[in-house]
Amino acid sequence: MLRVSKRHELYFEECGNPAGKPVLVLHGGPGAGCSLEQRRYFDPERYRIILFDQRGCGRSRPYAALEENTTWHLVADMEALREKLGLEAWMLFGGSWGATLALAYAQSNPDRVTEMVLRAVFAATGREREWYFGGGAAAIFPEAWERFLAPIPPEERADLLGAYHRRLTDSDPARQRQAALAWCEWEACTSTLVPNEQLVAAFANEKFALALARIECHYFVNDAFLGAGESVLARLDSIRRIPTVIVQGRYDMVCPAETAWRLHRAWPEADFTLVSAAGHSVSEPAIRDQLIRATDRLAAATRPRREHDHRRR
């Protein structure tokens, strides 16, 4: 555990090779927490794999807390973790919200990032929120959209994020729980190219759903604390030199390919792959294949540390 404030304490873990290439895994959501599966995108003989649960989720404490929980708190937490581990710099690996956070951190600390692998790029713009919460994805998933609308009276549906935020921050735990489960069912149903019952069941876990829905909604109603503009897509000059791989599913309904394409056009130096037969989830087979290819390639391009290098550190 790493205490980062009087209120927040973060869970983190390491696996793989202690002398390997350090990589920090940034989970999505925000609020999803890290998982065992996220270790498996890296060769454990070549990587020192570092995972942590961001504020308010997973095994971090307090659970589902929104206070002192912003993008810039998380960026500071990453720096605190890097310093605790004694690392000069590390590779970042993140998808969806994890890609947003990777970009925000790299733009603030460009000398601390050796490479990045970004999946399902999300810039936290109003256009993206309007697509997902304003009827765009609903045209593809009308039955799931009806279930998402169900907890909200018709007179409140003009501002779904506001309506959900009121319920997810309500003093009544039952009202919070109902909203969280509906929110997470919508996300699970839209995250894969074909329906994935296991993912839907996982998102129906009440404890998991509460943190994911509360924290996501908290960030979305606050423009992810990045301002109303598109700062993570605009501030690229400071990170242009960082070797980066971008992997995007063409049929991603949660983070449409338009955002990743715009990042690619603004940052042609980055390696960009638009995966034809894939949606949003990191578990999509074609996405998984591209991510593992990327981490293997980046590991192979890194000079192995000798044993005396490790002792000096």
Characterization of the model:
The protein is of the alpha/beta class. The protein has 2 domains: 2-124 and 227-312, Alpha/Beta hydrolase fold, catalytic domain (Rossmann fold, 3-Layer(aba) Sandwich), CATH 3.40.50.1820; 127-224, no CATH class. It is 41% helix and 14% strand. It is built from 12 helices and 9 strands. It has helices at 71-85, 97-108, 126-133, 142-149, 160-168, 173-190, 197-203, 206-220, 231-234, 257-266, 285-300, 307-312; strands at residues 2-3, 9-10, 12-16, 21-26, 47-52, 90-95, 113-119, 244-249, 271-275. The strands form 2 sheets. Strands 3-5-4-6-7-8-9 form a 7-stranded mixed β-sheet, sandwiched between helices. It has a two-stranded antiparallel sheet with strand order 1-2. Helix 6 packs across helix 8 (206-220). The radius of gyration is 19 Å and the shape is globular. 44% of the residues are buried.
Key features of this structure:
disordered C terminus, alpha/beta, single chain, 7-stranded mixed beta sheet, globular, Rossmann fold, two-stranded antiparallel ribbon, 2 domains, 313 residues
